[in-house]
Fold each of these.
Amino acid sequence: MKCESKNKIADSKTGILLPFGERANGQIVHISEVRNGLSCECVRPHCKARLVARKGPQKQHHFGHYASTECRHAYESAIHKLAKEILCKEKKIKIPEVKAEYMDMKEIIQREIIFELDEARLEEPISGIIPDVVALKRDRKLLIEIAVTHFCDSMKITKIRENNLSTIEVDLSQLSRDATALEIEEALLYSAPRAWVY
């Protein structure tokens, strides 16, 4: 599945508000994977408030907030955590080509490749920043940032460049809010837009 125009984020009137919840063991699950009601035994990934699975016959299935106010970061937190789980499990990601540019000349130094990881570490502090994922391959490190609604800000980019940290950012902002875990995996690993931060 490619991230095309049909995959634009749905707004709260037409799309699912929260398609993912978190189980007690920390695993992110799609609404289709759980039982209805409170028996889903899930919480919001961002703030750990209890969720109820709403799987009725009329509306699109989604998680709702059981006894607290809406959490505006719940969707982004769920996608971030799921993406990190995918990278830890699959241990690979497509990285963009590397280009050298000088004046009017451009040359491709390395074509895009599938980067195989030995290990993926989640939110491990490095040189004054906390990247989403630190991917390790022998003695090489690749930082992976996952953009859902927020992209790397100028302060983070400056620290990445000052510390000479190879970093890519994968743009998941165009995915539909009702994308399945498999669609998110495909987008993250292969088809979503991605670019070098440094």
Amino acid sequence: MAVQSLYETDEVQQLRDSARGFLARYWPPDKALERAVRPEALQEFWQRAAAQGWTSLGLDAEAGGLREVLVLLEELGRDACPVLMAYGSPEQQQRFLPAFLQGKDTFCLGYSEPEAGSDLASLRTTATRDETGWVINGTKIYTTMGDLADYVWLAARTDPDAPVKHAGISVFLVPTNTPGITIRPDIALYGHPACTVFYDNVHVPEDALVGQVNGGWRIITSALASERVLMGGIVAGIRAYFDQLATYLAETECDGRPLREDPLVRGGIGSLAADLEAARMLLMQSIELVSRGQVPFHQAAMTKVFTGELGERLPETALELLGTAGTFAPGTPQAMLDGTFEYALRDSIYKVIGGGSNEIQRTLIATRGLGLPR
């Protein structure tokens, strides 16, 4: 019992089926977590994806079509290369893009810090120039894939005396095997590592700098907008959860009647279906702006806020409808639907925090989108 999108065409469905077939063959759901913790499996997967063109389709919205790009975001989802294309030097593009697109190299984001989470302008990690390049010192937290990535896209303060905080920040592309980098994986509530990364006198050459010195804020905000568009792509996972819940309610009876005929059940499912379509339309709007060469600052924030909170509402609604058995963790014999929605609720937390907390996003929407005073 799947929800049908307003813009799902036969061509889009063909691409979606192709993507799902590829994932089913090379990254089956029952093996996803097992493979994700093995770097060689992750690298092999992205190399296969690159060979079939999946990792480069999203770089040109017009070539793939807006609907096709949305499918790519939903079914695969990849983010870094457009920002490097926009701000990297020709040498950096030539050096790094082919490896990223072919799945030979991966990267993580070095943004959040103990005293600078969503307020990145307050970051304290420093990059100081010496005679041959830069020396980096500081600590980053919540670095997803920090234990697997080949490079870190790192934000550091290069001018501590800048008149405004965000004006003294630069971005560097740093190999994670550089001496002085210590990576400590910590298992988060949703079962995956979120790394703390320490930088102790890490020396990088001059060409590790992306863009201009002290020009990192523009790069970061553009990259974060892209990340929030990508996070909007989690609507695919939400859609899959919705389909699973709707199918269960359609096939399950209570007192001789299908659960879906209960007015409370129909109201809850109907509300989720409407929100799901609204989330996909918000994502479509952001992708359309990207295709025009614009950065969807507040539009991407809207997409991220709405989709992230929908990712919480859906498992909350599911657990209300399923009852106590729905709250058991995956693998527990008593778990309803194998604990899918218990895990989904734990997994939803990062969706409202990652990419900038939703409280910060609401401020961005208010100031940039609505013109309200800070």
